[in-house]
């Protein structure tokens, strides 16, 4: 049986690579059996519980793991939906699932994306690791009406192979209680770099994690320590438990290019980048503020800060897209300056889900002046 499972996984890996048109290196897109449509044989299930470590092709499991079909009812009457395909995996107390990533390029950067949904506890979280890096993704805040959110995590490859592990560290009275996970994908992301005429890296957010064609709600980029690899090269997200959302032009209105960031957590979360500056010299920070065309129809306010200067920019959103440009001039006070963006308030759509202003096309230039002033748009 184990040989049959390995054969199915190898076939999936070949098909994924062929579809991506790559001869070597890991392909951008879904991981082999990343949406769990290849499941255990009936003999490897006890109800919904998976009984063998290698029963799910391309994955290894540990602990109380269930193979869930979309529309399945829980004991409490909740119906479990699945974001992609017809199946997902549920991680019970202390349970984990892992897949070996192959054909990685050493010292290259990668982002992992997947979807997750709470099923019981209010403070669920997931431990994500690609050894030796690891991180904790808080999933207690739900940002979509479906209950499913998509998350991103990034790492720098140390070797050509590595184990991706997702673990539920929770311990609940019900051993099966834990989040559902689905839709795993990977993407190579570039090291942070400057575009010509911009002191900031990745100021237009065009380099970022993989958003699948069937993902209508964007990706959450969770808070991270300063030494973590960011799924948004060049940018950090500072918060205790809240995230920003990475959105694409295929499913949202984006001010510039193909991607932008939606600030969905109010002042509890900051999007920031540190740039090298010269104390006493003047700089101009330019950026776009708008709405994602997702029904967030209300005045949306963003606070931009740098050194001792700040500016609040309001965009009168109709919820159908659109944006405005804004500028902030400031005098640097040190050889490094943090550029910070925060949403001024918590905003909700009519369905009760969180939304917020979109920030995009951010640039920083020296204006070679010694007196700072603000330009209000």
Descriptive keywords:
377 residues, mainly beta, Jelly Rolls, 2 domains, seven-stranded antiparallel β-sheet, six-stranded antiparallel β-sheet, 1 helix, 29 strands, 41% strand, globular, disordered C terminus
Structural write-up:
This is DUF642 domain-containing protein. One of its GO terms (cellular component) is extracellular region. It holds the Pfam family DUF642. Helix content is 5%, strand content 41%. It is mainly β. The chain has two domains: 188 residues, Jelly Rolls (Sandwich), CATH 2.60.120; 157 residues, Jelly Rolls (Sandwich). The chain has a seven-stranded antiparallel sheet, with no helix packed on it. Strands 1, 5, 8, 10, 13 and 15 form a six-stranded antiparallel sheet that branches. Strand 2 and strand 3 form a beta hairpin. The N and C termini lie far apart (66 Å).
Short description:
This protein has 377 residues and is mainly β.
Largest sheet properties: 7 strands, antiparallel
Order of helices and strands: HEEEEEEEEEEEEEEEEEEEEEEEEEEEEE
Q: If helices are DSSP runs of H or I spanning 4 or more residues, what is the number of helices?
A: 1
Radius of gyration: 22 Å
Mean of pLDDT = 89
CATH class value of the largest domain:
Mainly Beta
CATH fold descriptor of the largest domain: Jelly Rolls
Terminal CA distance? 66 Å
The proportion of residues forming helix, as a percent range, comes to under 10%
Number of domains: 2
Unreliable stretches covering 5 or more consecutive residues? 370-377
What would you give as the CATH superfamily of the largest domain?
Answer: Galactose-binding domain-like
* Major beta sheet, strand line-up: 16-18-19-28-21-24-29
Q: Which of globular, elongated, flat, extended, rod-shaped describes the shape?
A: globular
Oligomeric status of the shown chains? single chain
CATH architecture of the largest domain, by name, is Sandwich
């Amino acid at each position: 049986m184990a040989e049959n499972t390995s054969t199915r996984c190898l076939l999936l890996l070949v098909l994924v690579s062929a579809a991506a048109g790559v001869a070597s290196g890991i392909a951008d897109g879904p991981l082999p059996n990343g949406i769990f449509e290849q499941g255990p044989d009936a003999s490897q299930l006890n109800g919904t519980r998976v009984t063998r470590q290698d029963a799910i092709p391309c994955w290894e499991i540990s602990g109380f793991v269930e193979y869930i079909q979309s529309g399945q009812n829980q004991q409490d009457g909740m119906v479990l939906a699945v974001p992609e395909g017809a199946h997902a995996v549920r991680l019970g107390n202390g349970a984990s699932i892992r897949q070996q990533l192959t054909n990685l390029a050493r010292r290259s950067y990668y982002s992992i994306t997947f979807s997750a949904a709470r099923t019981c506890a209010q403070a669920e979280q997931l431990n994500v690791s690609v050894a030796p890096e690891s991180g904790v993704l808080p999933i207690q805040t739900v940002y979509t009406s479906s209950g499913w959110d998509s998350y991103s995590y990034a790492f720098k490859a140390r070797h050509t192979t590595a184990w991706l592990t997702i673990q539920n560290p929770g311990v609940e009275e019900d051993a099966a209680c834990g989040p559902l996970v689905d839709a795993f994908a990977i993407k190579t992301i570039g090291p942070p770099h400057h575009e010509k005429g911009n002191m900031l890296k990745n100021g237009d957010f065009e380099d970022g994690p993989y958003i699948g064609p069937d993902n209508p709600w964007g990706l959450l980029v969770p808070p991270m320590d300063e030494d973590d690899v960011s799924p948004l090269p060049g940018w950090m997200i500072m918060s205790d438990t809240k995230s920003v959302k990475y959105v694409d032009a295929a499913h949202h209105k984006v001010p510039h290019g193909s991607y932008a960031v939606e600030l969905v957590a109010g002042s509890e979360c900051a999007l920031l980048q540190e740039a090298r500056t010269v104390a006493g010299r003047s700089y101009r920070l330019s950026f776009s503020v708008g709405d994602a065309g997702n029904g967030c129809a209300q005045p949306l306010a963003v606070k931009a800060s740098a050194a001792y200067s700040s500016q609040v920019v309001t965009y009168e959103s109709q919820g159908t897209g659109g944006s405005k440009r804004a500028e902030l001039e400031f005098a640097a006070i040190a050889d490094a300056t943090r550029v910070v963006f925060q949403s001024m308030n918590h905003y909700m759509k009519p369905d009760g889900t969180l939304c917020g202003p979109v920030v995009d096309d951010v640039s920083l230039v020296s204006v070679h002046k010694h007196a700072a002033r603000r330009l209000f748009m």
